[in-house]
Design a protein that fits this description.
With 183 residues, the protein is α/β, with parallel strands linked by helices. 27% of the residues lie in helices and 27% in strands.
Length: 183
Amino acid sequence: MAEYSIETPMSKEDALKLKAGDKVMLTGRIYTARDAAHKRLVDLLEEGGDLPIPLEGQIIYYVGPAPTPPGKAIGSAGPTTSYRMDPYTPALIEKGLRGMIGKGERSEAVVEAMVKHKAVYFAATGGAAALISKSIVSAEVIAYDDLGAEAVRKLEVKGFPVIVAQDCHGGNIYKEGQAKYAR
């Protein structure tokens, strides 16, 4: 397993070099969105509307942060379970989304879209929300403020720690990890 530092937006070349299990430190801009926001984004795509975020090369973090304490950029910001976004994710990947951050395995439809369009799924460590939030330099709500914690945010991150959970070559740490212990 390799270790990489990647500046966002993430290029297709970056996605191609990553393998399941690689450690990555992300620096730059990433966006947040959960299932309600994903539905709105895909509905906009289907209506031919303009999205509130650029998708090409971007990374979406599946998080609903806790309230922001005084003097901090954001509250605790741990990953949420990713499968809730699976019905919407292939359409976003097709439009240029290069990476996603969450926890838990992805559906076959998402994996197929990742392989076809060279996208990567990163895992962030669940239970480390306060630690993860220290990598977030700034946070700004940019769409769907009515969704509260689930609003779309633009985050500036520095040294945001993730692991490649599922790569664009079909590698999958969830399956590979289980196979090591199968009898």
